[in-house]
Design goal:
With 486 residues, the protein is an alpha+beta fold. It folds into two domains: 101 residues, Uridine Diphospho-n-acetylenolpyruvylglucosamine Reductase, domain 2; 367 residues, Vanillyl-alcohol Oxidase, Chain A, domain 3 (3-Layer(aba) Sandwich), CATH 3.40.462. The protein contains 15 helices and 19 strands. Strands 12, 13, 14, 15, 16, 17, 18 and 19 form an eight-stranded antiparallel sheet that branches. A five-stranded antiparallel sheet has the order 5-6-10-8-9. The protein is globular.
């Protein structure tokens, strides 16, 4: 049963919990804060500091929480200091990387935030095809360095997304069909555990922890360094957008359903149903009209991808297209203007094993009544290499998903909350009978904690046992939480 808006506003703590947390924060003595500042190499921000307001803003504008303290940690030692301090002072602890998480888990009301957003370094070893990545790095930071050598790791589709949160939730993007999910390319991680130890996790050291980090979210520790396997890519790829009017949607999506079952791993084609933004390659008369957008990226030889572009054109009569060979790094930034920070966002998500006729018909039905110009129905085509990995190889289990949906409610004004959220929930319920029951954990909003078990399926019990070993008192719970096994 979905919580009503009158009972729960996503992104905002309840009045009782806010009061309790504020009282805990007030009990932190001035002497304790002085000692904390003296033991940190990075700055510590309190509500009276001039940078506090900007530091507490995250990507989702619905998140309005006021931490007691924000520690901009310079390294693992600062993280360890903050973990010890939060434990001593009984403060809620949260971790911020890129701050892009839809649920706003980076911020704890009245608590201490370990803010790693300033640590954005990426170092590439082209000979070993290996990347060392700091926990505040964004996709744009990673791609900028790796693409200088024609290398990449499967990441997301918005360059302002944080690498850390994406990876810890599993991660998928344009390269997933060719090279797997993001977590499949994770080689090792340095982790500060809930008892403030710094450990290294990889396939031979702390291997259970390493398994849990590859999709288990922020439940098991605070990663202070990632190491990734890199793969050959580009730097130029065949990519772009093809836009059809919504009245051709049934025909376009029927053809897409057939395509989705037969294309090679090098090709990704995603579907977006929305009102047309003012793209320069579309006629002005189409701006604001309902459209079906096909977004494609071909990661092989561009000439080999050209026939697939022709096949997409045959789906209908496009309003316009912008497809060609361009740097992969720029394609990763193509959706940034539509996903800028500060808007109010509410998501719902399902996984699907196939692009069936009912799934597509329901998508079209609800896209016909979009509640605003920034709302959209999004279907990401995965499968490929990601589907050829056993479900228990990593904590991320959804290897049977061909499509991952994002019912993306996005708007600007608080007075539109009810309308936009109810639209998203309506499509979610209509899709439910056709979905796998699983869900991508990074798409869960703040009011969906009851779906965490569905996010991990058959891997949940093992994750709970690892949680018991590394965080038996569930100290790290400002996340889509996996309670420790009892």
């Amino acid at each position: 049963m979905e919580p009503s808006l009158s009972k729960r506003v996503p992104g905002r703590a309840s009045e009782d919990s806010t009061t309790a947390q504020a009282q805990r924060a007030q009990r932190v003595s001035a002497d304790s804060l002085t000692r904390l500042r003296a033991n940190l190499h990075g700055p510590l921000l309190a509500p009276t500091d001039p940078d506090y307001e900007s530091a507490r803003r995250v990507w989702n504008g619905m998140i309005d929480r006021r931490p007691a303290l924000i520690a901009r940690c310079s390294g693992a030692a600062d993280v360890q200091t903050c973990v010890r301090f939060a434990r001593e002072q009984a403060l809620p602890l949260s971790i911020r990387g890129g701050g892009h998480n839809i649920a706003g888990s980076a911020l704890s009301e009245g608590g201490l935030v370990i803010d790693l957003s300033q640590r954005r370094g990426v170092s590439i070893d082209p000979a070993a095809r290996r990347a060392q990545v700091e926990p505040g790095a964004l996709l744009s930071d990673f791609d900028h360095e790796a693409q200088a050598f024609g290398l990449a790791t499967p990441l997301g589709i918005n360059s302002t997304t944080g690498v850390a949160g994406l990876t810890l939730g599993g991660g998928f993007g344009w390269l997933t069909r060719k090279y797997g999910i993001t977590a499949d390319s994770l080689l090792e991680a340095d982790v500060v555990t809930a008892d403030a130890r710094l450990v290294r996790a990889n396939s031979s050291a702390n291997s259970d922890l390493f398994w849990a980090l590859r999709g288990g979210g922020g439940n098991f520790g605070i990663v202070t360094r990632f190491a990734f396997q890199l793969h050959a890519l580009g730097p130029d790829v065949l990519c772009g957008l093809m836009v059809f009017p919504m009245d051709q949607g049934q025909r376009v999506l029927a053809a897409y359903s057939t395509l989705a079952e037969t294309i090679p791993d090098e090709l990704s084609v995603w579907v977006v149903l929305r009102q047309a933004p003012p793209l320069p390659f579309l006629p002005s008369t189409a701006h604001g009209s309902p459209v079906v957008v096909l977004a494609l990226c071909y990661t092989g030889d561009p000439q080999a991808g050209a026939p697939f572009v022709e096949r997409l054109r045959s789906f209908g009569t496009p309003l316009g297209e912008h497809i060609g060979v361009q740097p992969y790094r720029l394609w990763q930034q193509a959706f940034d203007p539509l996903l800028a920070p500060g808007a109010r966002n509410y998501w719902k998500s399902h996984n699907f094993k196939a692009a069936t006729e009912p799934v597509m018909a329901i998508a079209l039905e609800h896209a016909a009544r979009l509640p605003g110009p920034e709302c959209e129905v999004f279907l990401a085509l995965v499968g490929g290499a990601a589907s050829r990995v056993a479900a228990d190889t990593t904590a991320y289990p959804h290897r049977d998903a061909l499509l991952i949906s994002n019912i993306h409610g996005r708007w600007q004004r608080p007075e539109d909350d009810e309308r936009c959220i109810q639209w998203a929930r309506g499509l979610f319920e209509a899709w439910r009978p056709h979905a796998t029951g699983g869900v991508y954990v990074n798409f869960l909003t703040d009011d969906e904690h009851e779906r965490v078990r569905a996010a991990y399926g058959s891997n949940f019990e093992r994750l709970a046992e690892i949680k018991r070993r590394f965080d038996p008192d569930n100290f790290l719970h400002a996340n889509q939480n996996i309670p420790p096994a009892s």
